[in-house]
Structure formats: structure tokens, C-alpha cells
């Protein structure tokens, strides 16, 4: 009886497929997080603009009321000052915090 050298199959493809899969997952996650960072930066910039506009608007209204109040001593704008401050605070409220409050309330 002679010694037989059995044929052995060496799998070379599955390692390549796993490497390609890992590479595609890494690329996809990198692209996703890069886009997420850009969106975050855009929203931070937009929130700063909204806050700045709200401050300017309330300062203009306050200056106008003070001017009218000094011109006419009989006019009292105290109630309006409180309303402007309250509206300005609402405009500056972060939607992200409000969504979390609503989700907590609805138990989502």
C-alpha cells in the first residue's frame, strides 16, 4: 500500500471577504460620523444666529419702550418688558432639550 497525498483545499476567499466587509463598514461609519459632525456644526451655528437675533430683537424693543416711556411719563411698559423677556427665553430654548422632555413624558 502506497502513501497517498490527499488533496487539501485551502480557503483563501473567506479571509478576503471578511477584510473587504470590515473595510466597507469602517468607510461607511467614517462617512456617517463625518456627516453627523457637519450637521452638528451647522446646527450650533444656526442656534447662535437665532440667539443673537433674539437678543437684538429684545434689546431693540426694550430701547424703544424706554424711549417712549421717557417721552411720556404716563405710559407704563412694565408688563410688556416681562412678556418680551419671556418670549426671548422661549426663542432661545433648545429644541433638543424640549424633545427629550416630550419623549420622557410620552415614555418613548
How is the secondary structure organized here?
Elements: H1 13-71, H2 78-92, H3 95-106
Helix pairs in contact: 1-2
Number of helices: 3
Mean pLDDT, to the nearest integer, reads 80
Tell me the distance between the termini.
Answer: 74 Å
**Number of discrete domains:** 1
Task: Report the β-strand fraction as a percent range.
Answer: under 5%
Description:
The structure is a single chain. The protein has helices at residues 13-71, 78-92, 95-106. By secondary structure, the protein is mostly helical. The protein has one domain (17-106). α1 (13-71) packs antiparallel against α2.
Key phrases:
108 residues; mainly alpha
Give a summary of the structure in a few sentences.
By secondary structure, the chain is mainly alpha-helical.
Amino acid at each position: 500500500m502506497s502513501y497517498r497525498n490527499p488533496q487539501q483545499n485551502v480557503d483563501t476567499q473567506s479571509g478576503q471577504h471578511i477584510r473587504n466587509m470590515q473595510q466597507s463598514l469602517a468607510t461607511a461609519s467614517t462617512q456617517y460620523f463625518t456627516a453627523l459632525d457637519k450637521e452638528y456644526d451647522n446646527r450650533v451655528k444656526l442656534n447662535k444666529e437665532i440667539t443673537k437675533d433674539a437678543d437684538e430683537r429684545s434689546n431693540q424693543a426694550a430701547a424703544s419702550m424706554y424711549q417712549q416711556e421717557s417721552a411720556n411719563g404716563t405710559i407704563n411698559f412694565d408688563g410688556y418688558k416681562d412678556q418680551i423677556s419671556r418670549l426671548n427665553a422661549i426663542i432661545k430654548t433648545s429644541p433638543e432639550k424640549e424633545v427629550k422632555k416630550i419623549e420622557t413624558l410620552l415614555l418613548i
